[in-house]
Each structure stands twice: as structure tokens, then as C-alpha cells.
Amino acid sequence: MLAIAWALVVALLLAHNAYLWLGKRIAPETDILALLPVQERDPVLQASFAHMVDAAQQRLVVLVGASDWADARRAADAYSAVLARHAGLFQSTPLDEQTQNDWLALFQQHRLTLLAAPQETQLRQEAPAFWRDAALSQLYSPFGGPKLGAWQDDPFGLFSGWVQERAQETPVRPRDGHLFVADGDRQYVLLPMTLTLPAFSLGAQESVLPVLAQAEAAARQAVAGVDIISAGVILHAAAASSQAAGEMSTIGLGSLAGIILLTWLTFRSVKPITLILLSIGIGCLGSLSVCWLLFGKVHLMTLVFGASLIGVAQDYGIYFLCNRLGADPALDSRALLRRLLPGLCLTLLAAVIGYLGLGLTPFPGLRHMAVFSALGLVFAWLTVVFWFPALIDGGTLKSGALVERYGAARACWPLLRANRATLICGVLFVLFAAAGISRLGVNDDIRLLQTPPAHLLRDQIKLSKLLDAPTPVQFYLVRGDSAEMVLQREETLKQRLLPLIAQKHISGYQAMSNWVPSQQTQSARRALLDTAILRPGAALDLLAQSVDEGPQWAGKVRAQLEQAGAPLSIDAFLQVPASEPWRHLWLGKVEGGYASIVALRGMQYAAIPQLAKAGEGMPGVQWVDKVSEISSVLGRYRVYMGAVVLGAYVVVFGLLLPRYRRRTWRVLAPTALASVAALALLGYLNLPLQLFHVLALMLLLGVGVDYGIFMQEHPDRRNNTPWLAVGLSAANTILSFGLLALSKTAALQAFGLTMLIGTALVWLLSPCFAEADHRSAAAAAGEI
Fold first, then answer.
1. Percent of the chain predicted with pLDDT > 70
2. Membrane-spanning regions, if any (predicted)?
């Protein structure tokens, strides 16, 4: 009945997976940020980071460059022509005179309150005659600077000066209907685009990347030797997806091939291979279905990590098959299962504890991996328990020469005894471990876990330098009870940043108050203008006399200027297209207050301490360094998970104690020693300890205890069944995690390397802690 009930469950799993993949056509999530911890204590801080990331997520920037401007334009036009044929994928704003006029329209309506910082200082210090002379220079000199509109609309050049100051926030300039930027060798056309599809969508990546490749080919065909620099989240997401998919195939298929080969060499039959693959397949189906029901999504990295599950889920099937091979053919398989069930239950429990230890971290991705893997083990275990006894009988399995030779090798293994040899080995191990661990450093920098392709990293760095773009992971978060308070605090912060600009620690900053000064500042500036320029007898009247115009002309110009004297509001600015590049800086109303971001351009990483200090003591101003924050979380949880690993040993010891009593230490000792040796080897290899090494030690406990249980369940050295089960399980686990150690994803590589070393050592050490006598485990359980 249980076998039939389990068949119904498997049928439901098959139907649900068919619906997910064929009906719903699900796609694994590829957003690497989804794996990172959420800042739960400060929702405003989390919102600010998400705001910065979301602003960059849909953007795609391409620079098309050549040594000659005409060549750069021709190549860029060829590139744009290809994109134009796929207008549904990209959005871009054409650069023409109308666009520039629309961009300036709102500011011209409020130009009397918009002043550049040097002009504000001059208004405070200079006499009216200075401004009269400045206006005359604007009128008569051909080099009086750029003019926006008629001279009488801005006779003193104040609005033009403010526009010029805003233009300094980027090196990009309009030129011949294109956006232009240059370095010492090449001139580039800037092609900014916004994707219409989510950057992390596999469908978007499959649609956009071929178009970009076609556009690049067209540009290179138009101009030989053209330099094309591309940057965007979608490029990194596509590279990560491709890498993860390739690794998933390599790890999964490699593990599968290893299991098939080893199972064939052991049993010389297709049936055991089929049964092992059946248990693994049902484990994967079950974990995917339940994870989707629990989380509503599955990350691609979860599937990559889950591919290594193959090397663990087969343990239960191998344990049953090896015992079936070594048991009396007359013994019924169901009776054999009842005999093996206590050990099988303990192995499952220990492994699940190991995997669920990963779920104690703040990383959503690791929690998904933990649940996926633990569920996979449970479903594989249930398949073995419910189906294997019914599908394989005594006498079905035959062993080959490999089994006999491998079984004979156990007799050569030394046994742990209270003698001089054991003492010497113990002292040598302590010295080896102490020396290695003393060399072991720690490094929790999150940047060590980033492994983008070299060409993407190179393009990103070059583009950031050319565009003087701010970093999205280090910035100031400014808060206040009102929008006005936030803008005032921004202005105070900017004054503190001026010395850092002078010292070349940063090249500048981006802030909403650059475009919309606080009402307090706008009122003060308006008062300055009234005093120095607009009041009777001030600069405007002096100017009228100098150009032979009377009071009527001065009154007309004064009235015209005063019409543009209304304060500019943040809401009005956010509603016009000109605000689009800066909207990510304004969080608006959030958590009962208001907040904004001050981003930094040209930041030198060595100056981070000075930048953090610049905001100290300012109410409502907080320095945000997301790299440092996540790195500190990694370090904190590395220590925390180290304590959890030690606690897990205590828990597992308590679970094993009722069955093995004073011999329980023999089950745990191989895994504990292997964990210590793995840490020592990391020290000798000069690999810094990271959270993912510690997480691997947690999983190693779950896997390694299986081998100890196998050996203690059958202490008779003449019985090669447990040794065969340990060998097959360890070989497959080493294969799967060994392939994981070859991953280009640094976190998986660290995890896999630790598991590779640890599993191999547990395999080698387990026989040393086996029994020396030939009694059963039950008879020997009360002795040391």
C-alpha cells in the first residue's frame, strides 16, 4: 500500500513539473542580488540601495569610438540602425534642438532662483557695477560664454552660469545630434538605452544579446577598428546565466556519469543503475515542486548547487543495494529494510541537519539551496524505503572483481588503538593542524565572490572612467521629516564634501538639491538678486544707463525677470523629462519621512574612511557602503555559523547516543578530524577562510556522519558491505563536489573544495574508527 501511495505522489510530482516547465514555462531567476541578505533593521536603507540598483538595472550604455569623429558617427549610426529595427526592445530619447529646449523649459521658468555657487558668492561680495560690467561683456564680447535665449532674458548670465555648472556633472556633451565624450586617444558617441524587458529575464537576454551582436558587427563593418564599449546589468546577467547553465550541466551530468559507471562496475547490472537514478530523479522533482510552492521562484544558482545533490542523494540507495548484495539471498528485502531502517533514519536526519544549517543564514539564496537540497534527500530516501524492497529481491545482485579487490583493501587499514603508534599519529596530526590553522587568514570581502568575465569588467571600468559615473554601492542617505529638510541637509553635506573634491578624493557629487535647491536657499538667492540687481539703483538700472535705455526698459526687463522668480518645487521637477537621469536620487516619502541619495563621482576607494567621517555628526545623514555592509554580514555569519557547526555536533551526538551509547564518538570522530584537517589545508594553500568554507563544514557533518553510521552498523571487519557502501557514496560525493570546486563562481568553488577535501578525508579515516572484534553493533554498543 505504501508503494502504491508513493507512486501516486510521484505521479503528482511529474504532473506538477510538467505544468511548471511546459505549461507555465517557468524560468529560473538569475538576479545575483536576490542571493544577498536583506537589511531588515532599516527599511529606508534597504529601499535606498534597491532604488540605486533598480535605476541601473534596465539601463544599457554603449560607446562607439574612433580616432576620427566622423568615423565614430558613421559607426554609431550603423549600430543605431540595427537597434531601430528592434524598437520594441529598447527605448531611447532622440537628441535634437527640440529635446534640448524641452529640457531647459522648466528651469527657465524659475531661473531667478537658480544660481551657481560662484555667482552666489559674487552676489554677496561684488558691487552693482561689477554686474553691470558682466552684462555688458555678455552683450558685446563674442567670447562671453554660451547664451540661452535672448540677451535680455538673462542679461547678467546667471542662468547660463547655472546651466554650465550643471553640465559639469557629466563629461558628456551634445555634438552634431549625438552625445559626445572623449579620452586622450578616441572620440566616442554615447548611445544610452533603456530596456523594455526585465534585465534578469532569460527571454530578454535571449532577445537582446543577438541584436547587440548584430549591431556591433554592423558598426565594425562600417568602420574598421572601431572601439565598442558596452555596459549594463543584462550583460552580466546573461554571462552569469550562461556560466551557471554550463556548470549545472557539467556538475549534474558529470556526477550522473560517475554514479552510473561506479554502480555498473560494482553490480554489473543495469537494474541497480536504474534504481539509483530513479531515487535521484524523484528527489530532484520533489525538491523543485515544493520549492516553487514555498517560494514562488527558483534561483539558477539553487539549481547549480542542487546538481551536487546527486552525489549525496544516492547514499541511501547505495547503502540498501550494498546490504542486499552482502545479505543472505533467502532474506526478504522487506525484512532487510527493517533491519537497516534505524541506520537509514539516522543518516537522513544527520544529512538534513547539515543542509538546514545553511538555512540559518540571512541569505535568501542559501535558504533556497538548503530547502531544495534537504527536500531532495527526503524524497530520495522515501523512494528507497517505499520502492526498493519491492523492486529488488535476494540473489538479484552479483558482485564483480572490483568489489572483491576493494573489500580486501579494508584489511590493510590501521585500527585506532591505545598504543604508541596511535599516540605518535595523534601528536603529528595536532602539529600538522596547528601549523596549518595558524596560517589560516580570513577575508569576508564580498568582491571576492564576484567573478564577471574579464571583457565585461574591462568595459565597465573604462566606461565608468569616461563617463565619470558614480558608484551605486557607496553613497550618502539623507533623511528628514519633510522634503525641505532633506534638501537643506543635502546642501549642508555638500559643503563638507568640497574639501574632499579639492583633495581629489572624489571628483564631484550628484544630488537632487543641485537641481532643486531648498526653499530656504531659493528665498535667500532671490533676496540677493533683489539687493544686487533688481532694486532701484542697483545693477539693472546701471545697465540701462550704459546701453542708453531709460527706466521703462529697465522696468520691462525687471518685470520679465520677476516672472521667473517663483521657487522651483521638487514635485514639479520630477514631472518633467529633464529629471529622468536624477530621479533615482530621490526616494520621496518613505517610512513616515522623506529621504534622498547623494551619489559620489570619481570616488577613490582609499578615501572611504574620510568620506564616512564627512557625514558624522550631521542629523539625518548616513554614509552607506553596501560592499562593507555585506562583507561585515559575511564575517558575522562566518563566526555565527562556526558556532552553529559546533552546536550541530552536539545535537547529532545526542541523536546517535541512544543507539551507539559510549561508542558514539567513533561515528563522529572521522568527520570532526576531517573538518580540522580541511581547515589546516586551506591554511597551507593560503586560501582565506570565508563563510562558504564554514557552510561546507556544516554539510560535511551531515555527509560524513553517514559513513560513520555505515561502519558502526556493521562492525565485523569480515563484512565488507559497509566499506563498500562508504566507498561508493564517498566516491560519488567527491566526484560531484569535486566538479563543484571547478566552478567559476567563487562561493561554489570554496564550498566544493572544502567538501572535496573533507569527504576524501572522512572516507580514509572511517575504517580506522571501526570495531576490532567481530560482534554485532548491538552487542558492542556498551563498550568503548
1. 92
2. 248-267, 274-295, 301-322, 343-363, 369-392, 423-442, 637-657, 664-685, 691-710, 722-740, 746-765
The DSSP 8-state label assigned to residue 691 in this structure reads H
- Joined grid coordinates for residue 281: 530523479
With contact defined as beta carbons under 8 Å apart, do 298 and 27 qualify? no
- Residue 624 φ/ψ, nearest 5 degrees: -115, 120
Residue with the larger pLDDT of the pair 407 and 541 = 541
pLDDT at 778: 43
Instruction: Give the model's pLDDT for residue 34.
Output: 66
**Residue ranges in 296-326 assigned as alpha helix (H):** 300-307, 310-326
**Mean pLDDT, to the nearest integer, of 547-575?**
88
Grid-cell match 505522489, residue found: 9
Q: Which residues contact 597 (CB under 8 A, 6 or more apart)?
A: 48, 51, 52, 475, 476, 477, 478, 584, 585, 586, 587
Nearest to 688 by CA among 730, 731, 638, 616: 638
Mean pLDDT within 339-365? 80
Half-sphere exposure of 718 (CA within 13 A, CB side): 4
Separation of CA 530 from chain center: 53
- Domain 52-93+177-250 matching CATH 3.30.70.260: the answer reads yes
Domains 52-93+177-250 and 412-462+627-784 share a fold: no
The answer, yes or no, to whether residue 379 has pLDDT greater than 80, is yes
Q: What is the pLDDT of residue 210?
A: 93
Cα–Cα distances (Å) from 203 to 178, 210, 214, 239, 661, in that order, read 30, 12, 18, 14, 57
The CATH number for 412-462+627-784, chosen from 1.20.1640.10, 1.10.579.10, 2.30.110.10, 3.40.50.1100, is: 1.20.1640.10
- Break the chain into its structural domains and give their ranges: 1-30+268-398, 52-93+177-250, 412-462+627-784
Question: Is 211 or 357 the better-scoring residue by pLDDT?
Answer: 211
With a cut of 50, say whether residue 482 has pLDDT above it.
yes
Residue 326 has pLDDT above 50, yes or no: yes
Across the range 413-431, mean pLDDT stands at 89
**pLDDT score of 780:** 42
What's the rounded Cα separation, in Å, for the pair 501 and 600?
A: 10
DSSP state, residue 605:
G
Q: What is the DSSP string of 328-392?
A: -TTS-HHHHHHHHHHHHHHHHHHHHHHHHGGGGSS-HHHHHHHHHHHHHHHHHHHHHHHHHHHH-
**CB-based burial of residue 770 (10 Å sphere; 0-12 exposed, 13-18 middle, 19+ buried)?**
buried
- Residue 474's DSSP bridge partners are 625
Task: Give the mean pLDDT of 144-170.
Answer: 80
Question: Tell me: the pLDDT tens digits for 62-117?
Answer: 999 999 999 999 999 999 999 999 888 888 776 666 666 777 888 988 988 899 98
Phi and psi (nearest 5°) for 227? -100, 125
pLDDT value of residue 112: 87
SS (H, E, C) 135-197: HHHHHHCCCCCCCCCCHHHCCCCHHHHHHHHHHCCCCCEEECCEEEEECCCCEEEEEEEEECC
**Coil, helix or strand at residue 87:** coil
In 10 A of CB 215, how many CB atoms?
25
The owner of cell 559674487 is 122
* For residue 774, pLDDT beyond 60: no
DSSP string, 535-587: STTSHHHHHHHHTT--HHHHHHHHHHHHTT-SPPPHHHHHTSGGGGGGGGGEE
- CA distances from residue 746 to 301, 373, 692, 696 in whole angstroms, order as listed: 12, 20, 9, 13
- Quote the cell numbers at residue 126: 561684488
Q: Which residue has the cell 526698459?
A: 553
